Amino acid sequence: MPMRIRWGMLLLGLLLPGLDAARCDAAVELFAGNQIDLIVGSGAGGGYDTYARLLARHIARFLPGRPNIVVQNMPGAGGLRAANYLYNVAAKDGTAFGTFGHDLVLVGLLGHNSSVQFDSRKFTWLGSSSSFANDAYLLIAQPDAPVKSAEDARGPNGPPLLVGASAQGGGTSDIANLMRETLGFNLKLIPGYPDSNAMFLALDRNEIDARFTAISVLQLTRPQWLIPQSGMHVIVQFARAVRHPQFPDVPTARQLARSDRDRALIELAELPYLLDRPFVAPPGVPRERAQALQQAFASVQSDPQYRDDAARLKLDLSPIGSDEVARAIEAIGATSPATLDYMRKLLTNTGGG
Questions:
Q1: Using CB atoms within 10 A of its CB, is residue 302 exposed (0-12), middle (13-18) or buried (19+)?
Q2: Chain centroid to CA 170
């Protein structure tokens, strides 16, 4: 090896630790004594809020300078308001990150909704606290609802099931429209509820017959609905390749699909559930600050104190990191153009029903 190259490599080796230290110092200078805003795209008390507040209590211990983490709820349009804010308005220096509905990952890639002001691929992804490995997304109805099973829901002449939903283009609205198209369910959407708590309240008041929600959310907010004695009817389970062991008699959406095309649409819509509790920072966060957030997110997921708190709250922890999020988004993008186009048209041309 020429002497000049050997000296150059030696000099580089001496400089690299200094460069790493400089990056670390920059992160400490940014975080120490500062506030980091954690934006939650739903109201207080719901599933996303619970995961966010748990993370806020622990992640500062893994960030340089141990900054103060402040949770700010920003409900609206099924998390779309928060996603747009994080992408376009929030500080891009590492002092803001947040969480919103995982369904918005697909919405941001399809580009069918004029209210969407972000590209899912360009967020600074930190990871997801849950990959839905032990969960299921349920259509659950009241005891006296006119529809009590998937067979009832397909009845062409019976009364429709009144289903609460977020604003048009939100996750609950899109999944309901998907099930009308692919499963033939007779659903009438009652849209406009700002968050999960509002939909639960609507059920309590008999304003609606049913809603979509996850087992993990019910464990937090309505655990009594998960026992047979409650009289609640689970119509179908979504985001499951096989039936959840807690509901062995309830069919999955894939099982009820009427054609290969319908099954492909369902599987596409289920992909974002791999990012069940996603956390993102705005696009353009400087590399060293983005890495500090990503590393802190990864480290806290295996922290005993964090996991003990999650167990007490009965939260599913099946985390994935930023690299796995990128692969999941890539998988969505790799879906056949025909399926993506049909999904885009389906979600663009649906109404309240």
A1: exposed
A2: 12
Blockwise average pLDDT, block size 10, the chain, 353 residues: 44 47 57 90 89 97 94 89 97 96 88 86 96 93 95 87 78 86 94 86 94 90 91 96 95 96 93 92 96 97 97 91 92 89 78 40
Q: What is the DSSP letter of 275?
A: G
Widest distance between CA atoms in the chain: 87
Which CATH code fits 137-272? 3.40.190.10
pTM for the structure as a whole: 0.77
Alpha helices by DSSP H, the chain: 3-31, 47-58, 80-88, 103-110, 150-153, 171-183, 196-204, 215-221, 253-256, 260-270, 287-300, 304-312, 322-333, 337-348
How many CA atoms are closer than 13 Å to the CA of 255, on its beta-carbon side? 16
Residues 6+ apart with CB under 8 A from 131: 273, 274, 275, 276, 318, 319, 320
CA distance 62 to 164: 39
Right CATH for 19-132+274-344 from 3.30.565.10, 1.10.10.10, 3.40.50.2300, 3.40.190.150: 3.40.190.150
Angle at 238 between CA 226 and CA 139, to 5 degrees: 50
